[in-house]
Amino acid sequence: MTTETGTGSIFATPSMSEEHTPELALDTTPIRFSGFIALVLGLASFMAIFGEALIVVPAMAILLGAFALRRYSGDRPVGVIAAGIGVFCALMFGVWGVSERHFKKQQMSDQATRFAYEWLQLVGQGNIELALELQIHPQRRQTQSMPLTDYYERSDVGAKMMQQFREQDVVPQLIAAGDKPKWVPERPAKVYTLFGRELTQTVWRDTSGVYPRTLKIVLEYIAGRSSKVAQWKIELVSDFIDDSDRV
C-alpha cells in the first residue's frame, strides 16, 4: 500500500540534479613563478651593499619582476604582488649599494689626493724620516715616542731602510728638488681594488718646471679594526706613463 502526497510518493528515491547542487568550478587563476623568484632575489639584493659585482642580484630581480608584472587579461595572476615587492626591494637595495660605493670612492679620492700632496710637502721640506714612515704599514711604524732621526741614523735596520728609500725610483730627484716644485693634480684620482687591497692612484704635475715629468703616487687605504682609525700608506711613487703614450 502506498500513500501519496501531492504527485510524489513518500518512498520515492530522491535525485541529485543541477537544481539542488551547484557545479564545482575549477580554479583557473594563472600562477607566475617568476614573481616569486623576483621576490626572493629582491630580498637578497641587500648583498649589493657589500660588493660591486653583487649588483647583479638586484638587476636580475628587476628583470624577473618586470617579466612577472607584464599585462594580463582576466583575473590577476598569482605572483604579481610578490613581483612588485621584489622589484621594490631590488631598487631600494640596488640604489643604496651604488650610492654608498660612489660616496666612498669620492671620499677616498679626496683623502688620497690630500695625503699624497702632504707627502710631497714632507719630502720637499726635508722631513725624510716621516716620509719613509708613511711608506710602512701602520702596524710596523715606530711609536710616537721614538725619535725617528735617531732610529734611521743609528739603528742598523733603520739605516738600511733609509738607504733603500733614498735609492728608490724618483725619490732622489724629489729630495734634490726640495720645496721648489708646485704640485697640482694632473687628473682625477683613480680608486680601484687589487687582490683585495683598496688602492688609489693620484697623478701630479709640477707647474714650476723643476720636475719636468708627471709623477704618480699610489696609496693604499687600510681600514681600521675595532676602535682603530683607518689609515693611508704610500704604496708606490714613480713617473707616470700614460697608456696612450705606449701606442
Written overview of the protein:
With 247 residues, the chain is of the alpha+beta class. The chain has helices spanning 33-43, 56-68, 80-124, 128-133, 148-154, 156-167, 171-177; strands spanning 4-5, 8-9, 183-194, 197-206, 215-222, 231-239. Strands 3-4-5-6 form a 4-stranded antiparallel beta sheet, with helices on one face. A hairpin with a 2-residue loop joins strand 1 (4-5) and strand 2 (8-9).
Helices, strands, pairings?
Elements: E1 4-5, E2 8-9, H1 33-43, H2 56-68, H3 80-124, H4 128-133, H5 148-154, H6 156-167, H7 171-177, E3 183-194, E4 197-206, E5 215-222, E6 231-239
Helix pairs in contact: 1-2, 1-3, 2-3, 5-6
Keywords:
247 residues; alpha+beta; four-stranded antiparallel β-sheet; 7 helices; 41% helix; elongated; disordered N terminus
Shape: elongated
Mean pLDDT: 86
Order of helices and strands: EEHHHHHHHEEEE
Low-confidence residue ranges = 1-11
Q: How far from one another are the termini?
A: 117 Å
How many β-strand stretches?
6
Q: Provide the spatial order of strands within the biggest beta sheet.
A: 3-4-5-6
Any idea what the radius of gyration is?
36 Å
Helix percent reads 40-55%
Largest sheet descriptor: 4 strands, antiparallel
Number of helical stretches of at least 4 residues: 7
Q: What structural class should be given to the helix and strand makeup? A: alpha+beta
Strand content: 15-25%
